[in-house]
Write a structure and sequence with these properties.
- This protein is an alpha+beta fold.
- The protein has a domain of 125 residues.
- Helix content is 29%, strand content 16%.
- The protein is built from 4 helices and 9 strands; from the N terminus they run H-H-E-E-E-H-E-E-E-E-E-E-H.
- The relative contact order is 0.16.
Length: 204
Amino acid sequence: MRMIRSLLARTPGPVKLVVPLASALLVAACGSAAASTSAPAAGSSAAAAGSSTTGTVITTQAGSAGAFLTTASGRTVYLWAKDGMNMSDCSGACASAWPPVPATGTLTAAGSAKASDLGTITRSDGTKQVTYDGHPLYYFVGDSGAGQTNGQGSDNFGAKWWLVSPSGAQITGTDTAAAAAAPAPATSSAPSTPSSSNAGGGWS
């Protein structure tokens, strides 16, 4: 300390002001550098978290006949008894009335659905369709609200359409709870063959 004081005593006045000023600038520069390196790390992790949640989500909803599969928006999905394992036999007019559930991004299981049962198949038109325990999944254009099950038990196109349980089994009971909670459809509640060709079934 004595040596430093002695050197400062012999240092001209203008230089004495430069030394503390340079020290202060150095400390400020280090602080701003540390802040600039930590900010992008936080932003990139948030971006990574956001990207991991994009894609088709299959989850579950409670019903009077047992829990059944839906998408994240609450739209009910069905299996078709005519399909083979990991094979879809529904195309053309069938696929217009029962749009295949598209596989987009990362497939995710939520609720009681099991990630190990999720899969995809490639349809004849080259699009990817979600499967669950080997069953290709479909929407029904007659469902206009979350949790509606108007397609349950329908025999459109020559075979039964059923709700899907979290175990992957078909649910053959009537889902009276979901039917009671859902708004009344504009047409007859009995499943029919809709004329709409909208592959999305009118849902966003």
